[in-house]
Amino acid sequence: MDLNTLWFILIAVLYIGFFVLEGFDFGVGILLPFLGKDDARRRLIINTIGPHWDGNEVWLITAGGATFAAFPHWYATLFSGFYLPLFIILIALIFRGVAFEFRSKDENPRWRSFWDWAIFGGSAVPALLFGVAFTNLMHGVPIDANMNYTGGFWNLLNPFALLGGLVSLLGFILHGAVFLSLKTEGEMMNSALRAARRLWPPTVAVLAAFVVAMYFFTDVLKQLGINPGPIPIGSVLALLAAGYFIYSRRSGWAFAMTALAIVFSAATIFLVLFPRVMVSSIDPSFSLTIYNAASGQYTLRTMSIVALVFVPVVLAYQGWSYWIFRKRLSEKAEMHY
Predict the structure, then answer these.
(1) Which pairs count as long-range contacts for 276-279, CB under 8 Å and 24+ apart, including other chains?
(2) Model-level pTM greater than 0.70?
(3) Domain segments of the chain as ranges
(4) What is the pLDDT of residues 63-85, one digit of tens each?
Protein backbone atom coordinates (compact mmCIF):
# COMPACT_ATOMS: atom_id res chain seq x y z
CA MET A 1 0.00 0.00 0.00
CA ASP A 2 1.48 3.36 -1.04
CA LEU A 3 1.08 6.59 0.94
CA ASN A 4 -1.54 7.96 -1.46
CA THR A 5 -3.80 4.99 -0.79
CA LEU A 6 -3.08 5.15 2.94
CA TRP A 7 -4.19 8.78 3.15
CA PHE A 8 -7.28 8.13 1.09
CA ILE A 9 -8.22 5.44 3.62
CA LEU A 10 -7.43 7.70 6.59
CA ILE A 11 -9.54 10.55 5.19
CA ALA A 12 -12.38 8.11 4.54
CA VAL A 13 -12.15 6.91 8.15
CA LEU A 14 -12.24 10.50 9.42
CA TYR A 15 -15.36 11.34 7.43
CA ILE A 16 -17.04 8.08 8.43
CA GLY A 17 -16.22 8.76 12.09
CA PHE A 18 -17.70 12.23 11.73
CA PHE A 19 -20.91 10.88 10.22
CA VAL A 20 -21.33 8.29 12.97
CA LEU A 21 -20.56 10.61 15.90
CA GLU A 22 -21.87 13.94 14.67
CA GLY A 23 -24.73 12.11 13.00
CA PHE A 24 -26.52 11.45 16.27
CA ASP A 25 -25.77 15.04 17.35
CA PHE A 26 -27.54 16.28 14.23
CA GLY A 27 -30.42 13.90 14.87
CA VAL A 28 -30.83 15.05 18.46
CA GLY A 29 -30.74 18.70 17.38
CA ILE A 30 -33.41 18.11 14.73
CA LEU A 31 -35.65 16.32 17.24
CA LEU A 32 -35.23 19.01 19.91
CA PRO A 33 -38.32 21.15 19.11
CA PHE A 34 -40.52 18.10 18.63
CA LEU A 35 -39.62 15.90 21.60
CA GLY A 36 -38.90 18.81 23.94
CA LYS A 37 -42.42 19.66 25.04
CA ASP A 38 -41.21 22.04 27.75
CA ASP A 39 -37.99 23.76 28.75
CA ALA A 40 -36.96 21.00 31.19
CA ARG A 41 -37.20 18.37 28.46
CA ARG A 42 -35.41 20.52 25.93
CA ARG A 43 -32.60 21.09 28.39
CA LEU A 44 -32.47 17.34 29.03
CA ILE A 45 -32.20 16.66 25.28
CA ILE A 46 -29.38 19.18 24.88
CA ASN A 47 -27.54 17.74 27.87
CA THR A 48 -27.36 14.31 26.20
CA ILE A 49 -25.02 15.73 23.55
CA GLY A 50 -23.60 18.64 25.59
CA PRO A 51 -20.28 16.98 26.47
CA HIS A 52 -19.75 15.58 22.96
CA TRP A 53 -20.99 17.75 20.09
CA ASP A 54 -17.98 20.07 19.83
CA GLY A 55 -15.51 17.18 20.13
CA ASN A 56 -17.37 15.28 17.41
CA GLU A 57 -16.97 18.22 15.04
CA VAL A 58 -13.19 17.88 15.36
CA TRP A 59 -13.47 14.84 13.07
CA LEU A 60 -14.71 17.13 10.29
CA ILE A 61 -12.01 19.73 10.89
CA THR A 62 -9.34 17.02 10.87
CA ALA A 63 -10.76 15.47 7.70
CA GLY A 64 -10.75 18.85 5.98
CA GLY A 65 -7.20 19.58 7.12
CA ALA A 66 -6.00 16.15 6.00
CA THR A 67 -7.64 16.65 2.61
CA PHE A 68 -5.92 20.01 2.21
CA ALA A 69 -2.49 18.62 3.12
CA ALA A 70 -2.63 15.22 1.41
CA PHE A 71 -4.70 16.06 -1.70
CA PRO A 72 -4.55 19.83 -2.28
CA HIS A 73 -6.04 19.66 -5.79
CA TRP A 74 -9.03 17.73 -4.42
CA TYR A 75 -9.43 20.34 -1.70
CA ALA A 76 -9.18 23.22 -4.20
CA THR A 77 -11.67 21.76 -6.68
CA LEU A 78 -14.09 20.63 -3.99
CA PHE A 79 -14.14 23.87 -2.01
CA SER A 80 -14.37 26.06 -5.13
CA GLY A 81 -16.99 23.99 -6.94
CA PHE A 82 -19.04 23.26 -3.82
CA TYR A 83 -18.42 26.69 -2.35
CA LEU A 84 -22.03 27.76 -1.77
CA PRO A 85 -23.31 24.54 -0.11
CA LEU A 86 -20.16 24.26 1.99
CA PHE A 87 -20.50 27.91 3.01
CA ILE A 88 -24.12 27.25 4.02
CA ILE A 89 -22.98 24.22 6.06
CA LEU A 90 -20.33 26.34 7.79
CA ILE A 91 -22.81 29.09 8.67
CA ALA A 92 -25.29 26.49 9.98
CA LEU A 93 -22.63 24.85 12.17
CA ILE A 94 -21.51 28.22 13.55
CA PHE A 95 -25.10 29.27 14.27
CA ARG A 96 -25.71 25.89 15.94
CA GLY A 97 -22.66 26.23 18.17
CA VAL A 98 -23.70 29.74 19.20
CA ALA A 99 -27.21 28.48 19.97
CA PHE A 100 -25.93 25.85 22.41
CA GLU A 101 -24.14 28.56 24.36
CA PHE A 102 -26.71 31.37 24.14
CA ARG A 103 -30.02 29.62 24.87
CA SER A 104 -29.35 29.51 28.64
CA LYS A 105 -28.32 33.17 28.90
CA ASP A 106 -31.91 34.32 29.31
CA GLU A 107 -34.97 32.57 30.73
CA ASN A 108 -37.35 34.37 28.38
CA PRO A 109 -39.35 31.65 26.55
CA ARG A 110 -39.10 33.48 23.22
CA TRP A 111 -35.34 33.75 23.55
CA ARG A 112 -34.96 30.05 24.27
CA SER A 113 -37.43 29.08 21.56
CA PHE A 114 -35.45 31.08 18.98
CA TRP A 115 -32.18 29.34 19.85
CA ASP A 116 -33.86 25.93 20.03
CA TRP A 117 -35.04 26.38 16.45
CA ALA A 118 -31.55 27.60 15.58
CA ILE A 119 -30.22 24.28 16.87
CA PHE A 120 -32.82 22.53 14.72
CA GLY A 121 -31.84 24.46 11.57
CA GLY A 122 -28.13 24.23 12.30
CA SER A 123 -28.50 20.46 12.52
CA ALA A 124 -30.94 19.82 9.66
CA VAL A 125 -29.11 21.84 6.99
CA PRO A 126 -25.73 20.05 7.33
CA ALA A 127 -27.46 16.67 7.70
CA LEU A 128 -29.09 17.20 4.30
CA LEU A 129 -26.24 18.93 2.45
CA PHE A 130 -23.50 16.50 3.49
CA GLY A 131 -25.48 13.72 1.84
CA VAL A 132 -25.97 15.84 -1.28
CA ALA A 133 -22.25 16.71 -1.45
CA PHE A 134 -20.89 13.20 -1.03
CA THR A 135 -23.42 11.70 -3.42
CA ASN A 136 -22.25 14.19 -6.05
CA LEU A 137 -18.65 13.08 -5.56
CA MET A 138 -19.41 9.62 -6.92
CA HIS A 139 -22.23 10.67 -9.27
CA GLY A 140 -19.90 13.01 -11.11
CA VAL A 141 -19.74 16.79 -11.54
CA PRO A 142 -18.45 18.91 -14.45
CA ILE A 143 -14.66 19.08 -14.02
CA ASP A 144 -12.43 20.08 -16.95
CA ALA A 145 -8.91 19.03 -17.88
CA ASN A 146 -7.44 21.72 -15.60
CA MET A 147 -9.24 20.31 -12.51
CA ASN A 148 -11.65 23.24 -12.48
CA TYR A 149 -15.32 22.85 -11.60
CA THR A 150 -17.26 24.33 -14.54
CA GLY A 151 -20.83 23.85 -13.29
CA GLY A 152 -23.04 25.89 -11.01
CA PHE A 153 -24.96 25.43 -7.80
CA TRP A 154 -27.97 23.83 -9.51
CA ASN A 155 -25.78 21.09 -11.00
CA LEU A 156 -25.39 19.78 -7.46
CA LEU A 157 -29.14 19.51 -6.86
CA ASN A 158 -29.78 16.62 -9.24
CA PRO A 159 -32.35 13.93 -8.28
CA PHE A 160 -29.76 11.33 -7.26
CA ALA A 161 -27.90 13.79 -5.01
CA LEU A 162 -31.15 14.93 -3.40
CA LEU A 163 -32.00 11.29 -2.72
CA GLY A 164 -28.59 10.94 -1.04
CA GLY A 165 -29.34 14.03 1.03
CA LEU A 166 -32.66 12.55 2.11
CA VAL A 167 -30.88 9.34 3.13
CA SER A 168 -28.41 11.23 5.33
CA LEU A 169 -31.13 13.45 6.81
CA LEU A 170 -33.46 10.61 7.80
CA GLY A 171 -30.57 8.35 8.80
CA PHE A 172 -29.14 10.93 11.18
CA ILE A 173 -32.54 11.70 12.70
CA LEU A 174 -33.13 7.99 13.33
CA HIS A 175 -29.59 7.67 14.74
CA GLY A 176 -30.31 10.61 17.06
CA ALA A 177 -33.64 9.20 18.22
CA VAL A 178 -32.00 5.90 19.14
CA PHE A 179 -29.20 7.77 20.92
CA LEU A 180 -31.78 9.70 22.96
CA SER A 181 -33.48 6.45 23.97
CA LEU A 182 -30.08 5.15 25.03
CA LYS A 183 -29.12 8.23 27.06
CA THR A 184 -32.38 9.07 28.82
CA GLU A 185 -34.92 7.34 31.00
CA GLY A 186 -38.59 7.62 31.83
CA GLU A 187 -40.96 9.44 29.53
CA MET A 188 -38.20 10.95 27.41
CA MET A 189 -36.83 7.48 26.64
CA ASN A 190 -40.31 6.32 25.63
CA SER A 191 -40.82 9.40 23.43
CA ALA A 192 -37.50 8.78 21.70
CA LEU A 193 -38.38 5.15 21.04
CA ARG A 194 -41.74 6.15 19.59
CA ALA A 195 -40.00 8.64 17.32
CA ALA A 196 -37.50 5.97 16.24
CA ARG A 197 -40.34 3.59 15.35
CA ARG A 198 -41.97 6.23 13.17
CA LEU A 199 -38.70 7.15 11.48
CA TRP A 200 -37.49 3.62 10.79
CA PRO A 201 -39.82 2.64 7.87
CA PRO A 202 -39.19 5.75 5.70
CA THR A 203 -35.45 5.54 6.41
CA VAL A 204 -35.33 1.93 5.22
CA ALA A 205 -37.32 2.86 2.11
CA VAL A 206 -35.08 5.77 1.04
CA LEU A 207 -31.88 3.84 1.78
CA ALA A 208 -33.07 0.87 -0.30
CA ALA A 209 -34.03 3.29 -3.11
CA PHE A 210 -30.57 4.90 -2.92
CA VAL A 211 -28.79 1.53 -3.15
CA VAL A 212 -30.81 0.63 -6.24
CA ALA A 213 -30.33 4.08 -7.80
CA MET A 214 -26.58 3.88 -7.24
CA TYR A 215 -26.32 1.16 -9.87
CA PHE A 216 -28.04 3.41 -12.44
CA PHE A 217 -26.54 6.83 -11.65
CA THR A 218 -22.89 5.86 -11.04
CA ASP A 219 -20.32 3.74 -12.84
CA VAL A 220 -20.22 1.13 -10.09
CA LEU A 221 -21.24 -1.60 -12.54
CA LYS A 222 -18.19 -0.79 -14.67
CA GLN A 223 -16.08 -1.31 -11.54
CA LEU A 224 -13.93 1.74 -12.21
CA GLY A 225 -13.55 2.01 -8.46
CA ILE A 226 -13.52 -0.92 -6.06
CA ASN A 227 -16.65 -3.02 -6.39
CA PRO A 228 -18.36 -2.51 -3.02
CA GLY A 229 -19.79 -6.01 -3.24
CA PRO A 230 -22.22 -6.78 -0.39
CA ILE A 231 -21.45 -3.62 1.59
CA PRO A 232 -24.39 -1.56 0.22
CA ILE A 233 -26.70 -4.48 0.97
CA GLY A 234 -25.08 -4.69 4.41
CA SER A 235 -26.17 -1.12 5.14
CA VAL A 236 -29.78 -2.06 4.43
CA LEU A 237 -29.51 -5.25 6.51
CA ALA A 238 -28.00 -3.30 9.41
CA LEU A 239 -30.90 -0.87 9.26
CA LEU A 240 -33.39 -3.73 9.21
CA ALA A 241 -31.68 -5.17 12.29
CA ALA A 242 -31.89 -1.75 13.94
CA GLY A 243 -35.65 -1.84 13.46
CA TYR A 244 -35.88 -5.19 15.21
CA PHE A 245 -33.94 -3.87 18.20
CA ILE A 246 -35.93 -0.63 18.29
CA TYR A 247 -39.21 -2.53 18.54
CA SER A 248 -37.61 -4.84 21.12
CA ARG A 249 -36.59 -1.78 23.19
CA ARG A 250 -32.93 -2.78 23.08
CA SER A 251 -31.47 0.65 22.51
CA GLY A 252 -27.82 -0.31 22.79
CA TRP A 253 -28.01 -2.83 19.96
CA ALA A 254 -30.24 -0.51 17.94
CA PHE A 255 -27.66 2.28 18.21
CA ALA A 256 -24.89 -0.12 17.15
CA MET A 257 -26.92 -1.10 14.08
CA THR A 258 -27.73 2.47 13.01
CA ALA A 259 -24.04 3.31 13.42
CA LEU A 260 -23.13 0.26 11.32
CA ALA A 261 -25.60 1.30 8.62
CA ILE A 262 -23.93 4.73 8.46
CA VAL A 263 -20.47 3.13 8.29
CA PHE A 264 -21.49 0.83 5.44
CA SER A 265 -23.26 3.62 3.53
CA ALA A 266 -20.31 6.01 3.74
CA ALA A 267 -17.80 3.24 3.01
CA THR A 268 -19.74 2.42 -0.17
CA ILE A 269 -19.22 5.96 -1.45
CA PHE A 270 -15.46 5.84 -0.90
CA LEU A 271 -15.16 2.35 -2.40
CA VAL A 272 -17.03 3.42 -5.52
CA LEU A 273 -14.76 6.45 -5.79
CA PHE A 274 -11.36 4.78 -5.30
CA PRO A 275 -8.81 5.58 -6.69
CA ARG A 276 -10.68 8.71 -7.71
CA VAL A 277 -11.63 11.44 -5.28
CA MET A 278 -13.94 13.40 -7.60
CA VAL A 279 -15.55 12.02 -10.75
CA SER A 280 -15.74 14.23 -13.84
CA SER A 281 -19.02 14.09 -15.73
CA ILE A 282 -17.36 15.75 -18.75
CA ASP A 283 -14.73 13.08 -19.37
CA PRO A 284 -13.67 10.22 -17.07
CA SER A 285 -10.03 11.05 -17.83
CA PHE A 286 -10.54 14.46 -16.18
CA SER A 287 -11.45 12.87 -12.84
CA LEU A 288 -9.31 13.70 -9.82
CA THR A 289 -7.50 10.70 -8.38
CA ILE A 290 -5.34 9.98 -5.35
CA TYR A 291 -2.34 10.43 -7.64
CA ASN A 292 -3.00 13.52 -9.77
CA ALA A 293 -4.53 15.40 -6.82
CA ALA A 294 -1.91 14.46 -4.21
CA SER A 295 0.91 16.27 -2.45
CA GLY A 296 4.51 15.14 -2.77
CA GLN A 297 5.79 11.99 -1.10
CA TYR A 298 7.76 13.95 1.50
CA THR A 299 4.59 15.73 2.65
CA LEU A 300 2.65 12.47 2.83
CA ARG A 301 5.46 10.77 4.72
CA THR A 302 5.72 13.59 7.27
CA MET A 303 1.95 13.61 7.76
CA SER A 304 1.98 9.86 8.33
CA ILE A 305 4.47 10.22 11.18
CA VAL A 306 2.44 13.01 12.80
CA ALA A 307 -0.77 11.02 12.48
CA LEU A 308 0.85 7.92 13.96
CA VAL A 309 1.79 9.92 17.07
CA PHE A 310 -1.27 12.06 17.68
CA VAL A 311 -4.30 10.17 16.36
CA PRO A 312 -4.14 7.49 19.11
CA VAL A 313 -4.00 10.27 21.72
CA VAL A 314 -7.09 11.97 20.32
CA LEU A 315 -8.98 8.68 20.10
CA ALA A 316 -8.06 7.77 23.66
CA TYR A 317 -9.23 11.14 24.98
CA GLN A 318 -12.53 11.01 23.12
CA GLY A 319 -13.13 7.44 24.24
CA TRP A 320 -12.45 8.51 27.83
CA SER A 321 -14.96 11.39 27.56
CA TYR A 322 -17.69 9.04 26.33
CA TRP A 323 -16.94 6.66 29.20
CA ILE A 324 -17.13 9.46 31.79
CA PHE A 325 -20.51 10.68 30.48
CA ARG A 326 -21.97 7.24 29.81
CA LYS A 327 -24.83 7.33 32.35
CA ARG A 328 -28.46 7.94 31.47
CA LEU A 329 -29.94 11.35 32.20
CA SER A 330 -33.31 12.20 33.71
CA GLU A 331 -35.48 15.29 33.97
CA LYS A 332 -35.18 15.19 37.77
CA ALA A 333 -31.40 15.51 37.76
CA GLU A 334 -29.96 18.93 38.45
CA MET A 335 -28.29 19.64 35.11
CA HIS A 336 -27.36 22.78 33.29
CA TYR A 337 -25.50 23.19 30.03
Answers:
(1) 276/224, 276/225, 277/8, 277/71, 277/74, 277/137, 278/74, 278/77, 278/78, 278/137, 278/141, 278/143, 279/137, 279/138, 279/139, 279/140, 279/141, 279/218, 279/219
(2) yes
(3) 3-324
(4) 999 999 999 999 999 999 999 99
